């Protein structure tokens, strides 16, 4: 197994970018020349987090747009403050992929609201109870099971094979909910922060929210938006999701997000459907 999802590379110039080599553990289930959406999203979140390191407050909303194929050649990431502020701040980041001619193309972009409000522990409220059983109390496996009764048979290819999963009863749609954690660090030689770790796997919400047959359909998401009520904690993330499909070839996957301490946010992903 790879050492990490990305290997850090020396920057060829002082251009403000960080450079990375994706490993085979980033591979998508949809095509062998693409990365799964999770690792690039997490790489962007890592970059956004570095801009606000040491500040009080937290991210309330993070949106990632996939602008094109996130390829397997060298990736580079750079973040910037879009709207500075002490209480309200907007930050953004872009991920570029090296092309065969040596130029770089922007393949993904993220933006996030970072808020610093008053202490609200005394009025803290969760819209849903915790997702149970917890991962420590259920069977888990590398990748996804081959049992058609528990959703799509994603197997253990590429990125999916670099995750550990388990299924529990869900509240949204017909499918079970999924506990999932990344097996590898995001960047080789680094300890992955809990927020970035969560975003490695949150993109999977779109894959587990339906019983569509991937031999007949693809349903790739063009974006992922996560609204957070608090930072996620720990390596296990619970995804309770459902895919809504309209009559015009697109839909959306909606999900409730959990960690071992309970509910921490919701995700929404625009989905383009296509016949295989």
TrEMBL record:
InterPro entries: ACOT8-like_C (IPR049450), Acyl-CoA_hotdog (IPR042171), HotDog_dom_sf (IPR029069), TesB_ACOT8-like_N (IPR049449). Residues 30-114 form the Acyl-CoA thioesterase-like N-terminal HotDog domain. Residues 155-272 form the Acyl-CoA thioesterase-like C-terminal domain. It comes from the Bacteria. Pfam families: 4HBT_3, 4HBT_3C. This is Thioesterase family protein. The lineage of its organism: Bacteria, Bacillati, Actinomycetota, Actinomycetes, Mycobacteriales.
């Amino acid at each position: 197994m790879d050492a990490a999802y990305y290997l850090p590379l020396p920057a060829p110039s002082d251009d403000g970018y960080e450079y990375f080599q994706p490993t085979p553990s980033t591979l998508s289930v949809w095509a062998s020349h693409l990365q799964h959406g999770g690792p690039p999203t997490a790489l962007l979140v890592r970059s956004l987090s570095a801009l606000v390191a040491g500040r009080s407050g937290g991210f309330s909303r993070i949106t990632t747009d996939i602008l094109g194929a996130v390829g397997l050649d060298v990736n580079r990431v750079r973040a910037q403050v879009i709207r500075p502020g002490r209480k309200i701040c907007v930050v953004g980041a872009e991920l570029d992929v090296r092309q065969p001619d040596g130029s770089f193309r922007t393949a993904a972009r993220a933006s996030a609201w970072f808020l610093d409000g008053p202490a609200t522990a005394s009025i803290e409220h969760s819209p849903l109870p915790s997702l149970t059983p917890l991962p420590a109390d259920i069977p888990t496996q590398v990748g996804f099971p081959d049992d058609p009764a528990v959703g799509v048979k994603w197997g253990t290819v590429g990125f999916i094979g670099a995750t550990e999963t388990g299924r529990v009863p869900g509240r949204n749609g017909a499918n079970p909910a999924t506990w999932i954690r990344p097996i590898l660090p995001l960047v080789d030689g680094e300890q992955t922060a809990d927020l970035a770790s969560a975003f490695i796997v949150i993109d999977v919400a779109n894959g587990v929210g339906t019983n569509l047959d991937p031999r007949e359909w693809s349903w790739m998401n063009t974006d992922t938006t996560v609204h957070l009520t608090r930072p996620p904690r720990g390596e296990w993330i619970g995804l309770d999701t459902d895919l809504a499909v309209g009559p015009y070839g697109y839909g959306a996957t909606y999900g409730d997000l959990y960690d071992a301490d309970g509910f921490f946010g919701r995700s929404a992903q625009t989905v383009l459907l296509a016949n295989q």
